[in-house]
Amino acid sequence: MGARQHHTAAAAGSVDDFEYNWEKLQSAIRDIHLKNTGSLTFEQLYRHGYKIVLLKMPERLYDNVKRFEESWFQEQVIPPIFEVISKNLVSVTLGSVPGTSVVDRRAIGEKFLKVIREAWEQHEMSMNMIADILMYLDRGWSQDQSRPGIFAATIGLFRDHILRTGIQADGNPPCTVFGILNATIIDHINMEREGDAIDKALLRSCIGMLESLHKTDEELEDEKLYITDFEPEYLQKSRQFYKAECDRLLRESDASTWLRHTQRRLDEEAARCLTTISPITSDSIAKVLEEELIQSHLEEFMSLDGSGVRAMIDNDRTTDLAVLYQLVCRVDPDREALRKAMSNRIIEQGLEIEKVLKNTDFSAPQTADEGPAADGGDKPKPKTLNASAQQTAAALRWVDDVLNLKDRFDNLWSNCFSEDLILQTAITKSFAEFINTFDRSSEFLSLFIDDNLKRGIKDKTEAEIDVVLEKAITLLRFISDKDKFVLYYQKHLARRLIQQKSERQDVEAEMISRMKRELGNTFTSKFEGMFKDMNISKDETEAYSKYVRGLGASDEKRIELSINVLGGNNWPKEIMGRQTGLGGQERTDAAYPREIKALQESFYEFYCKSHQGRMLNWVGTLGTADIRCVFPKIQGKSSGPLSRERRYELNVTTYGMIILLLFNDLPEGEWLAFDEIQAKTNIPQPDLINSLTSLSVIKATRVLLKEPPSKAIVKPTDKFTFNREFVSKAIKIKMPSVNAANKVENEEERKETDEKTNETRKYIVDAAIVRIMKSRKELVHSELITNVVQQLASQFKPEINLIKSRIEDLIGREYLERADAIDGKPAYRYVA
Amino acid sequence: MQMDDDASTRSAYQRTTVPVIVNRHYLISYPYFLHTPSLSIPFDVIMAPEDNSEAFSKDPFSGLERFLLSTDWSDLTIICEGRELPAHKVILCSYSPVVAAALNSNLKEARTNTIEIQFDLATVCCMLFYMYSGDYDIQKGKLSALGFNAPKNDAKTGLTRGSTDTTEISEGSSVLNSVQICRNGDPEAPVIQEILDHAKMNKIGDYYQVPALVKMSNFMMDSILKSSWSTKAFISIVNDLFESTGDTEWQKMLASHVADNIVQLGSDTEALAQAKDLSPLTREIISACADRIQVVEASRKKSSSSTGLGSRRF
Q1: Do A3 and B281 touch (CB under 8 A)?
Q2: What phi, psi does B215 have (nearest 5°)?
Q3: Which of the 8 DSSP states describes residue A452?
Q4: Beta strands across the sheet bearing B114-116
Q5: Which residues pair with residue B272 across a beta bridge?
Q6: What range(s) does the Cullin family profile domain occupy (chain A) (predicted)?
Q7: Which numeric CATH code is attached to A747-830?
Q8: Which CATH superfamily is A2-223 part of?
Q9: How far apart are the first and last CA of chain B?
């Protein structure tokens, strides 16, 4: 009993103490609300709170403060807010567009937002001060109980008593102040999107309020009102807005406008997140934009006629492309759409090049360069372009066009696509694709190099030469049938070397060393071998002439000999003599005149001293001879060149020399028939036709007369005689080698090259298969195919059928046998 | 060069320092704070090779402690018992959210940069010691408080001499009186006085919400009770702290001492009755427990002696 008395007495005293302290605090809180804080001391107020807590009555204080604030809201804060909530505002919230103008709507909205902001700022400031003063309250008892802190509790009153207050406007469903607030903010933002100016700072303050308030007094970070209530609605309304906008753009505008517009919207929304709403929304709103403005109609915009990707590429609209790239990157990490569009355009343009080229080929022979297609391809010497020169021009044109195309896309790639790796792969792949579908790419590339090394680089600086070489290498990288290229290059290089047409040896060497760097040793070994042959031959020639002088037989009629010994492996077969080439004819030696025969024997003797056991074959089509030729004075001519004896030095092919020597012994006025010449010289017919044509048809070098005289090439029925009346202004005359200028193959030759490549490929595939099987012993069919393709990638792209047939063949020859299926797949085993 | 610089800055601080009693003991105690073992080891290693130790020696005045009660850079004045103590916002606000709130409050404290503290001067000085050095010492706090009682001139001379003895300080200070009374009175009085001083630290730490200070005060009381338990001291703590601090840890600390000394405490019902703030029930429980334990103890002794016999027999 005594104890209870003691306690109740104490309690009574406490209540008095409490009332005393609370009175003080309450008047201070009122002063704080009224901004009348001049006479307040923190220390005193804090002490009041402290005392109440030590009296063990913190709950009472807590509840008193809340009650005070609630009545303060009712009396002081809510009335002015209700005053500004008009019917219009409610309608905006409910989504119906009111009849009022935008200006009116904005004014009404601003008024409302300002009142809310004012109320909030007042409340927040007061609550901060009150919470500071009552700081001991939180410490004193919140340890024992799970009530939210005094600040959280009082600041949250704003949410409960202001924002969540319902409004019953007549005829409308109920809505809350919060609902009106959200709708008004979003309405204002939409106004800004339409181009009106709005009070951003005002919106920012209201948003700030939503960020400071939480759904519950627990104040969880992810339960801010901004996140739980405002943002979802904002995103949804924005989505509607942009969906409509994108549909409108697709209907009314072109891709370029769309790009610029989208870019602008992205920037705007990003800026809006910093200035008006919260930065935490920036990712979400960007996603809305990406989905609605970019993703939803991306392909449609990209394929728009006249402004889509195609037009952008064709018209070099680099800014558009750059923007497009950035937009695509936002929505698609694989850049699928853009990649496809680029690839298609490249292949289209590649095929275009081919088409233009074909037109040039058809139109050029008849009417040298008429029609737009032939403009760039032909050099301005339309008359004399024969078929082969035309081909060279076509090759040059093709290479140029392809490289230009490549340059353009490379530029786009680095200027617009930020050197994107995915797109680079796509571009490279597309180029490789159309280059390799064009069946003459290897040949044309080789011709391009050939032409440049022969004359193209004549007056060029080192830097320019470097550009040419680099171009060649660039293209070479794309070509998948490298073995074919090797064949062509071998042929062209052989001609350049033997006919000494190469402009500069060092550039030749540089070209080869670059190929080596790019494609490896095996690729260039033959080329290097050819160079080596040429160099050794030079020494050989010198040694021989020394040797001959050493013999002492210095007779005046001695024939100077310059020799090129070509190792059979490195040089293309057709160069080694037509005899082995077309028609499978037996190799026949031409009947060399006696003097020449002696010379040949002399050299062979010399050569065998240092190289034993070697056979030397003389290639008549490739050699040349310088002949001194005397044309007699023509009777009855007293003036002009014909009145004198004329001496000329003729440079003819070896065969040409043999033919001309026949006419040495021919009496004046007699003719030699084609058959007779063939019989006497034993020169294969095609070579003979070539040689005779060059000697008898072309006017400037017509040292033989043909019967019947015509400009057509020699036919096997023609007859020939020595042209006594031949006149030339030059003393040294080079007989043009007809058909030798034929660097481009004719159809037959090309077919032959292809056949040859295919034949070689068989062996290479065989070797690869055996190599792989030898190391793997047993292998599934599909894996074997993949491995073969991989191994040969640097040389050519083998057809799957070829590999299959080679496997069959190898099984037939008992290198492989069929093994038991591995995992149900057919397999092979290597037979040792 | 460097030494000169140091010397000049140091003297500048000394010139402007306010009346603090800086006696020999105080100066010597510096290294205690600064050269903790973990600091001194690398210190020696660096010094070892050459005799340019000055280059590496740490300025003993580099700690924040040199700003204690100094007007240098002072931006805050504490008013206590009518005296003005210079202080620094950065230090006080970082320790006490209450001071920080006061200075942010827009109220009088913030406008004038002054805070009135309603604790006694020695306690306030101790709290400042704690905030500036991480430690407090009741005696030092009292001495500093005395310094504020002295006329300014005296304090200055005392300072420059650096060896002012406490006995030279003029009398009339209530703090000093209490010290003297402690020395002359009942043998338990000094302990009680000391423990009550720590209780004050508990209260001020609680008021200004400096939990570490509260913890330290509890630790100090704990160690005093451990070394010299006294029922009187216990009762004075209870009477002093009960319902005048928001801290509860001291109760746990005290309870464990009660358990240790329950027999002595329970038998002394007269003294126990002095603990006004303990409810009668609590007091009865303590007494009852003490009785029960005595009975248990007695029977245990008896049985241990009987088992002792038994074992001997066995």
Answers
A1: yes
A2: -60, -40
A3: I
A4: B83-87, B76-80, B114-116
A5: none
A6: 440-696
A7: 1.10.10.10
A8: Cullin Repeats (1.20.1310.10)
A9: 86
Q: To 10 degrees, the CA torsion angle through B25, B28, B33, B35?
A: -160
Report the pLDDT averaged over residues A708-733: 76
Hey, which of A55-64, A563-572, A722-731, B211-220 has the most confident mean pLDDT?
B211-220
How many angstroms separate the CA atoms of A472 and A515, rounded? 9
* HSE (side-chain half, CA atoms, 13 Å) at A703: 30
Rounded to 5, what percent of chain B is helix, strand, coil? 70, 5, 25
The answer to whether the Cβ–Cβ distance between B105 and A42 falls below 8 Å is yes
How far apart are the CA of A76 and the nearest CA of chain B, in angstroms? 23
Structural tokens at position B5? 């610089």
Strand partners, A672: A720
Q: What pTM did the predictor assign?
A: 0.63
How far is Cα B108 from Cα A37, in angstroms, rounded to an integer?
Answer: 8
Task: Phi first, then psi: give them for residue A672, nearest 5 degrees.
Answer: -110, 130
Closest CA of chain B from A124, distance in Å: 13
Q: What is the DSSP letter of A571?
A: S
Q: How far apart are CA A372 and CA B266, in angstroms?
A: 122
Q: Using CB atoms and an 8 Å cut-off, which of residues 104-133 of chain A contact chain B?
A: 129, 132-133
Fold exhibited by the domain B65-230 = Potassium Channel Kv1.1; Chain A (3.30.710)
Partners of A563 in beta bridges: none
Contact A615, A568 (CB under 8 A): no
Confidence check: pLDDT of A815 > 80? yes
Contacts of A139 in chain B (CB under 8 A): 209, 246
Nearest 10 degrees: Cα torsion A246, A249, A251, A255: -110
CA distance B290 to B294: 6
For B8, what's the count of Cα atoms within 13 Å in the CB-facing half-sphere?
5
**B98, B110, B245: residue with CB nearest A135:** B98
- pLDDT (tens digit per residue) in B4-40: 444 433 333 333 333 333 333 333 333 333 333 333 3
Burial class, B144, CB count within 10 angstroms (exposed 0-12 / middle 13-18 / buried 19+)? buried
Tell whether A139 is within 8 A of chain B (Cβ): yes
- What confidence tier does B75 reach under pLDDT thresholds 50, 70, 90? very high
CA closest to B108 among chain A residues: A41
φ and ψ at residue A12, rounded to 5 degrees: -60, -45
- With beta carbons under 8 A apart, name residues in chain B contacting A54: 243-246
- Residue B73, helix vs strand vs coil: coil
Beta bridge partners of A706: A720
B246/A37 touch (CB, cutoff 8 Å), yes or no: no
- Chain B within 8 Å of A506 (Cβ-Cβ)? no
pLDDT digits (tens, 9 = 90+) for B203-241: 999 999 999 999 999 999 999 999 888 888 888 888 888
Q: Could you report the per-residue pLDDT of A385-408, keeping only the tens digit for each? A: 566 677 778 888 888 888 888 888
A576-596 residue pLDDT tens: 554 444 444 445 567 777 777
Q: Provide the residue ranges of all domains of chain A, joining segments of one domain with +.
A: 2-223, 238-331, 336-520, 624-734, 747-830
B-chain residues near A47 (CB < 8 A)? 118
Compare CB distances from B209 to A40, A133, A139 and report the shortest one's residue.
A139
Residue B167's pLDDT is 39
Rounded Cα distance, A622 and A491, in Å: 13
Q: Three-state SS for A627?
A: strand
The residue among A42, A57, A150 with the most chain B CBs within 10 A of its CB, best to mutate, is A42
CATH superfamily to which A624-734 belongs = Cullin; Chain C, Domain 2 (3.30.230.130)
Neighbours of B21 (CB within 10 A): 23
Check CB contact under 8 Å for B246 and A3.
no
The residue extents of the domains of chain B are: 7-55, 65-230, 265-305
